Fold this protein.
Amino acid sequence: MRFVLLVSLLLANSAAQALQLVELNWRAPSELQAALQPQLRPDERLSAMDNQLIIDASPAREAQLAALARQLDVRPASLRLDVSQSGSNAQNQSGVQVQGNISIGRIMPGQTGSNLALSAQQDSRAQSSQVLQSLTLLDGRSGFIQLVQSRPLPWLMLTPQGNLVRGSSMQDAITGFYARPRLNGQRVSIELAVSQQAFNGVQRTGNQLSTTVEGRLGEWLEVARTTQDSQGRESLLIGGSQQQGQQSHSVRIRVQALP
């Protein structure tokens, strides 16, 4: 009899402490966890794992919190992210001016890391080219856009007979963006992880930037500018001026809401 009573008490206690699992379809568990955290009572717990929320509360409260989580788990807005990479071969001097709000992970010496954006002016004799890529994303989700630049790189080979053979072959430098836009009314913040390979003379080098940009929906936001001098050396400009004979490439980003 005592054994049956003990088993009954254990089962009742286990039922009272059962966890509520809420499967999420759209929103990230960490996002809903942060939204529901202020609603919790002192003896209640909420955690996130994979695409689930785990609720530890009384059965009645678990049902309430689960219902609220399902109400918040709605499909995010659809967004179109445009990335424009424009290049120019300037024949005389042009200026670059800083404005806006950019927080960037790698800064050139003498420059600050906040309240930065770029705008540029160049004369009518400059030759320019532009590449535009687009990607459809959900609000709060990330995607990757890849741009490629090609240029001939020379090579030198020594034959078994001791002769030197010279030539050149086309090599690609990849510029890519991992972008995650977040809407806030008519404004948007874009988290960027930038992986960029830049040519440095006849060799290829790479650098990575981590950037957050804020602006209005539909507004072009300039992130950075790379320049290449007559010796083939490339550098990243945050402000400064473009000197005679330099080639430059700028990267701009725009986010638009889709119906």
About this structure: Confidence is low (pLDDT under 50) at residues 2-16, 90-126, 196-207, 236-245. Residues 2-16 form the longest helix (15 residues). Residues 78-257 form one domain.
